[in-house]
Amino acid sequence: MRSAGKVLSEALRSAHVDDRLVIGVYESAKIMNDDPDSVAFCVLATDGEFECDIALQIHFTLIQAFCFDNDISIVRVNNMQRLANLVGDKVKELEDAHCVLITNPTEGSWEDPALEKLHLFCEESRSLNEWVPEITLPER
């Protein structure tokens, strides 16, 4: 793919406009538990403090396992601040941006070209045994 970061940015912006974002580890876990079929894509964001936060690592492991079990594409980004900037006013505190879901409440949402490209990117990555590929978000 030409630039996975640009495509992810497009998908996040589109989902933001359509109010299809769920932000936060606990909010994401609740949606995944209540209605896993509504989840189209998962983004996990790390930062420098991630290595020291054992609780967050456990949450990420559980979220990843859930995504694998439910065929939900998942990626990591290594700049939580950039991700928070992309999802905009929906983030009340920066800590909430560790997990962002793009939901798919309607069937037509799968026709989002950026989301389709991301699903293909994740599928290709899995074929190379990279189960949770890392994407670098572009600078503005």
From TrEMBL:
Protein family: Belongs to the GADD45 family.
GO CC list: cytoplasm; nucleus
GO BP terms in the entry: regulation of cell cycle
Coiled coil spans: none
InterPro entries: GADD45, Ribosomal_eL30-like_sf, Ribosomal_eL8/eL30/eS12/Gad45
Pfam family, one: Ribosomal_L7Ae
Domain of life the protein comes from: Eukaryota
Domain Ribosomal protein eL8/eL30/eS12/Gadd45, residue spans: 8-91
Entry protein name: Ribosomal protein eL8/eL30/eS12/Gadd45 domain-containing protein
